[in-house]
Amino acid sequence: MTIHALNVAQRFALGATVLFLVWCSLARPLAAQGSEPIPPQCLRLGADESLGETYAAFETFFQDLYARAGFCAQSIAMDPKRIEQLLVRGELDGDWFRPGDYVAAMSDKLIGLPQPIFGLEARLIWLDHTAFSGKPEDMHGLKVGYQSGFRWLESHLPQMGAQPFAVSSTAQTWELLARGRIDVFATSGLHEGAVIDHLKSKAGTVNRALWTTVSFFHVLHPMHQDKAEKLNAALKQMILEQTPAHSFLQPGMQPASINE
User: Is residue 26 predicted with pLDDT exceeding 60?
Assistant: First the structure.
């Protein structure tokens, strides 16, 4: 090999060594950065999009609840039936709240926290021309409207002997009641005020009565079984402290008692 060829080979080897050292100096901080813990992904919670003005208060409540338990949560507004479908498939991690009957019926597929979040009144509304006493047992044989998607009403009206009639929008309530297509309209305490205001603008006198108060519970997909105990403890503490984040209570709702 000639002297010139050796010089070329030596220069090439030196250049390769320099490049290798530069790569190592860059690779070390990248490797160190990659070893840093990645923040846990927020759990995706299904949130009832029909809650209107109370939505923001509930969203704050659940963010605070999960933070107290050491987790992160992101609420996603959608139709309640869509929430059911996605949660069972594991495409959502939790559901803001469901009535106790639903949690019991789905106990083989979902997990409900033992501590209820609140009690929600089920209310009955009717006009003067309807022969209804206001007593729940007297719904037997009557056609009772309810807003589509309210599962508790949907399942319990037949148990009272009533004929359920799903209503897609409460704006239809006046026409249905006035024309006798339904005898009574059943709704939640949260939605009663808006329905009453709408009817009074048309009818003047509107009758209403309390049916019952239903306990609602937070729901998780089973893959988060390990988080249930901490979330339940945090929920109890928030109720005991009556924190500002628990200020979602509105007329038609009742504060939850501590479930020992």
Answer: no
pLDDT tens sequence across 38-92: 345 899 999 999 887 889 999 999 999 999 999 999 999 999 889 999 999 999 9
Place of tokens 């704050």: 60
- pTM score above 0.70: yes
Distance of alpha carbon 111 from alpha carbon 101, whole angstroms: 13
SS3 category, 44:
strand
**Please, are residues 137 and 204 in contact by the beta-carbon 8 Å criterion?**
no
Helix (H), strand (E) at residue 173: helix 173-178
- For residue 50, the model assigns a pLDDT of 81
**Cβ proximity of 97 and 150 under 8 Å:** no
Q: How far is CA 169 from CA 46, 81, 243, in A?
A: 21, 15, 34
Three-state DSSP at 219 gives strand
State the Cα–Cα distance between residues 124 and 135, nearest whole angstrom.
Answer: 9
Task: State how far the Cα of 249 lies from the Cα of 260, in Å rounded to an integer.
Answer: 22
In whole angstroms, give the CA distance from residue 53 to residue 251.
Answer: 13
Q: Do 71 and 40 contact (CB within 8 A), yes or no?
A: yes
Burial of 14 (0-12, 13-18, 19+ CB in 10 A): exposed
**The pLDDT of residue 246:** 62
pLDDT recorded at residue 6:
41
User: What CA–CA distance (Å, rounded) separates 202 from 46?
Assistant: 35
Quote the tokens at residue 255. Answer: 């504060």
